[in-house]
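Example record for the data management plan.
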Amino acid sequence: MLVLLGAGAVAVDVGQIYAERAELQNGADAGALAAAQLCASSTGCTPASANAAASALADANARDGASAVQYVDLSVANQVTVGTSTIDGTSNAGFLTQMFASALNAPPATVGATATAGLLPPGGGGGFPLAFSNKCWDLTGGTNVGVLQKISWKPGVTCTNPSGHTIPGGWGWLDDPDGDCRAVTQIGNEAGSDPGNNKPSQCANVLQGWINTLNAGEPLEVPFPVFDTASGTGNTGSFHLIGYATFDILGWKFGQNGVYEHNNTTAATGNSKLACPGGPDRCIIGKFVKYVSIDDTESTGSGPGANLGTVVVKLIK
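Corresponding structural encoding:
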């Protein structure tokens, strides 16, 4: 009987330890993601603020609402490591209260977990079939928001800032073989171009969604692939992609009337040099911004691309 009781005590307590360990791992994972997201935000983070962000999520993932964040390590660039350990929610002791094994003079148990979240530039993904030239990208590592500018269709090869200064660059349409207004791209690869300056009708629903977002007073922040060189012409043309940047869109003109042109006039922009008012002109108007996402559904990889201010927060270990 004593042996059976001892075996039962060990089974129950080992189960408790495994359950505690799972909660602590969930808390470490959530805490690392929260702290990394804070550090990548426009406000940045300090050890104290990162610890506070991690502690809130670590506690929320414990059944008794209590856990200990032993440390938050910010020493590695673009990484946050969080370590958690046991706190008893009733006694606040740093160990598990044993239900049975204490009767056999077994010591209390303390368990822990660690997790590391990284801030990684996307390596690939899918989105609106448009690519920007890196000559138009104006967001530096120390800047959270770029200047308002107009980026013109690639045959026009221009980027215009609010003062009207024109630099080489532009944008180009990407191949959309499925006809769903979405192109899948990969950093380091050549993305095929789609000639012409009018995007087909399958983008109407996407553009209407953009208009709805702007009309609701919300920012319209869309990631786009960025190319450094373009080669070929027409259907044989291609863009060499180096990274992804997020554009806070104010207006555009991708075609004539309807959803294909919105907020593209002087009245909308407040600056005639940023308007794209009529004729065959095509443009997109906005500014580059830093952007942090924990939604990995559009990303197919991470790491090899240039960091153009857009990063995905994800667990790396």
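Summary line stored alongside the record: Residues 89-94, 296-302 have pLDDT under 50 and may be disordered.
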